[in-house]
From TrEMBL:
Keywords: Mitochondrion, Phosphoprotein, Ribonucleoprotein, Ribosomal protein, Transit peptide. Its main location: mitochondrion. One of its GO terms (cellular component) is mitochondrial small ribosomal subunit. This is Small ribosomal subunit protein mS40. GO terms for biological process: mitochondrial translation. It is found in: Mitochondrion. Coiled coil: none annotated. The lineage of its organism: Eukaryota, Metazoa, Ecdysozoa, Arthropoda, Hexapoda. One of its GO terms (molecular function) is structural constituent of ribosome.
Length: 186
């Protein structure tokens, strides 16, 4: 059993005490967070981040702490009214160099995720490992602008040979090449 630390919270209105338990694993994660540089969250997206910085970010401890081993779009949840989500995602998250929405898409939210054909580790997260097809914006939650940019960058990476893909199998109609044999001639 993990050692726990009991914290007491008192509420003035009801004047009752509720114990809260914090496990040692949470305490260890708080220690790890103190070693990483913590910056203020900014909505300004006018600064252009180089691709090399984005590639280094994908290998960093800050990326591992934020996303873990799952793709960047897995932890994102679309925010919408009602129980049925709209068919299409929003047009864009960034207007006039500023994040204009309260819940931006996974690429717009993190300024160090730069879509570029050389950023192969990021592009692989949006390609289905089983079929090799590009995942839909309804599954990934990307805004329309970033999804179009993603399609272009994946095509460019395929053209340059940075991303591998399976060539579709062609089914030939051999009746166009060979004359059908008549077995009725005896």
């Amino acid at each position: 059993m993990l050692p726990t630390k009991i914290l007491r919270c008192s509420f003035l209105r009801n004047n009752w005490i509720r114990p809260l338990h914090v496990t040692s694993s949470l305490q260890k994660s708080e220690v790890d967070e103190s070693r990483l540089e913590v910056r203020d969250i900014t909505k300004d997206r006018t600064e252009v981040i180089p691709v090399e910085t984005s590639i280094r970010y994908l290998k960093s401890a800050a990326y591992k702490q934020t996303y873990g081993d799952v793709p960047v779009w897995v932890l994102y949840r679309r925010n919408h009214k009602g129980s049925i989500p709209p068919r299409k995602t929003r047009r864009t998250c960034i207007r006039g160099g500023q994040i204009s929405t309260g819940n931006p898409c996974p690429i717009c939210r993190d300024e160090y995720l730069v879509l570029h054909e050389e950023n192969v580790n990021l592009l692989k997260q949006f390609v289905c490992p089983h079929t090799g097809s590009i995942l839909s914006y309804s599954k990934t939650g990307l805004c329309q602008k970033k999804h179009e940019e993603l399609l272009v960058m994946i095509e460019r990476a395929w053209d340059r040979g940075l991303l591998t893909f399976d060539v579709p199998f062609r089914k030939y109609d051999y009746s166009e090449y060979y004359k059908p044999e008549n077995k009725d001639k005896s």
